[in-house]
Amino acid sequence: MKFPRQFTLKEIADLLQVNYVGKPDFSIFGINEIHVVEPGDIVFVDHPKYYDKALNSAATTILINKEVDCPEGKSLLISDDPFADFNKLTKHFQPFKSAGSTISESATIGSRSIIQPNVFIGNDVQIGKNCLIHPNVSIYDNCIIGDGVTIHAGTVLGGDAFYYKRRDDFYDKLLSGGRVIIEDNVDIGAGCTIDRGVTGDTTIKKGTKLDNQIQIGHDTVIGERCLIASQCGIAGCVVIEDDVTLWGQVGVISGITIGTKVVVLAQSGVGRSLEPGKTYFGSPAEEAREKMKEIAYQKQIPSILKKIKNI
User: CA-CA 20 to 30 A from 119: which of 150, 166, 178, 259?
Assistant: First the structure.
């Protein structure tokens, strides 16, 4: 998430009321999570296990809960609670804006696009040309939809990320300030839910087709011409490359990559990154042919045990 203008380290430190390490006029352009940070971004870290990863990331300002050696060319914001202060920045630069109407006056809708009754379109949404949005679709603030997109009834774009920090007696929510981007000629079935990024974008690229009742988590990127069948659940921060097929009820863990032209057969559980061009099956998902052999061998176990018993 980029700020509306360049800020200085001192300005951000004053906003958060924290100490800092670095030049007061050090430039800051935005905030982001660790997997999408760029130079000029703030990233937060609140556990020693992840200090090195944050300090050595592309981020040039680290919001951290301990004063450590600052890498050359970077700056630190020293916070008692980096998680809470990251939320303060999201709330300050991307505050919640209540809706004043069913279709926001700040939304833009391209020519020949059809919006059916009872569709909600939030603030600053952009919808391209020749789209068809069916009844009871909800499109939250800042979503971007390309040309020739079809969205079926009951789908929700832009819900909050499922991202919480465990406190002593409750779960503290990390606020979402990112977007959902749907590129050209994407079809989205009925009853799908696509969460926005925490600070970045959840993206579905051109030509991809989604069946009904699919969940896509925050900051996930789905490539071009993918096919995703009913009841798949894809966690946050997943990268699905081009021409991937996920059949029904596939579950995908967060933070992995599914390679180009992968096929994952129905009811599989994907718990690791998958190499391109292969077919996978099972839970945990393995190459389908080997998994089928494994299942065949397992079926032979009772007869093998019976033979052993009779020896």
Answer: 178
Helix (H, G, I), strand (E, B) or coil at 296: helix
Active site residues: 218
CA dihedral for 238, 144, 59, 16, sign (positive or negative): negative
Q: Is the pLDDT of residue 297 over 90?
A: no
Is residue 33 within 8 Å of residue 198, measured between CB atoms?
A: yes
Give the contacts of 138 (CB within 8 A, at least 6 positions apart): 119, 120, 155, 156, 157, 158
* Contact by Cβ (8 Å): 216, 222: yes
For residue 54, the number of C-alpha atoms closer than 13 Å in the C-beta half-sphere is 27
Query: How far is residue 51 from each of residues 12, 22, 69, measured CA to CA in Å?
Result: 21, 17, 11
Please name each of the domains of the chain with its CATH number: 2-93 (3.40.1390.10), 108-293 (2.160.10.10)
The number of residues in the chain equals 311
Average pLDDT over residues 160-187: 96
